């Protein structure tokens, strides 16, 4: 498969699946345009090559067909500004207006189609709907990594209507895939996976898959308490899942058998209430008094985790070490960010993926100090669970 930069779009109409699912306020103003900004280099390259661009995206979750609130027309002005091109708009993503405007498109011009999810066929992965969309362009470009784990009409099904030479990833998608593949299939050892977040149940598949690949797994956040309780420790009123305790023990046993080092916190910042103003103290793991709950990893754990991270050549981070949204419980997550940044500066490859760890590195200002920050929460998680992502498979064929 040729890379996006080698693809020539001269004289071609590129139909690009983008992720313009941006948050809008009540006045329909965009409150965070990161997703739009990410795709600008893809669009610009195609226009510079001498191609034209037809953009398709979803916005929000419209339930019953066309809904004014979810119209992509709200983003046309901002997109025009970002591209420095007057973006045209079609009031429908299929149908006469879309067909006519796409057909009339000249090199250097951009057309945005109305919200794909105004048709139920989009999420159902309807083949006839995908075929209609495919008629609008000569080349299909998928640059929406955030929806790569969905087999929707525009993200996967549509690809079959383009010959392999006429379909490609865009910049965003290509860099996401390359970074993920580097960690999953070509990780230099030692390889540490840092897994945090609230629940074991959300992260079980990713841990199981990483047991096959990583040399070290750091487990922090709320999910650690299920492990401590399963081992007979006292966890007070910390978050935990009783029904996942056997699974936690199974993970520890599997790791031991495979020679993978699991690092659980040795101490915890505990609070008498789930609040930033609660009383706090530090307790060793397994010794949390009744009425107290663990909301962050303690200082000894932070030092131990940092040592493991600094000794690693590949780092994957998914999930915070504590309730980082509250100032008094963010030191653990911040310490991880500092260590990952330092390891990266020393030459390690670091990938941060999955919703909350991404918000954490952004919040602490570390996004430029790691090798790669993934934009696709659910998609990246499913990739590291070992699943085939329909959006990737459809392009690769
Ligand atoms: P996830 O989306 O699974 O990565 O979980 C992220 C959420 O886990 C964040 O909102 C954190 O506040 C929460 N979390 C992390 N550690 C704890 C903890 N010790 N107790 C309760 N919630 C936690």
CATH class of the largest domain: Alpha Beta
Report, as a whole number of angstroms, the end-to-end distance. Answer: 10 Å
**What is the strand tally?**
17
And the CATH topology of the largest domain?
A: Rossmann fold
Q: Please give the largest β-sheet.
A: 6 strands, parallel
- What is the count of distinct domains? 2
> CATH architecture of the largest domain, please?
3-Layer(aba) Sandwich
Q: From the alpha carbons, calculate the radius of gyration and give it in angstroms.
A: 23 Å
The overall pLDDT average reads: 96
Bound molecules: adenosine monophosphate
* CATH superfamily grouping of the largest domain: Phosphoglycerate kinase, N-terminal domain
Which strand order does the major sheet show?
A: 3-4-2-1-5-6
- Sheet-strand content, in percent, reads 15-25%
Percent range of helical residues: 25-40%
Overall 3D form:
elongated
Q: What's the total helix number? A: 14
Structural class: alpha/beta
Q: Low-confidence runs (pLDDT<50, min 5 residues)?
A: none
Structural overview:
The chain has 397 residues and is an alpha/beta fold. It contains 14 helices and 17 strands. It has 2 domains: 13-172, Phosphoglycerate kinase, N-terminal domain (Rossmann fold); 187-384, Rossmann fold (3-Layer(aba) Sandwich), CATH 3.40.50.1260. Strands 3-4-2-1-5-6 form a 6-stranded parallel sheet, sandwiched between helices. A 6-stranded parallel sheet has the order 10-8-7-15-16-17, with helices on both faces.
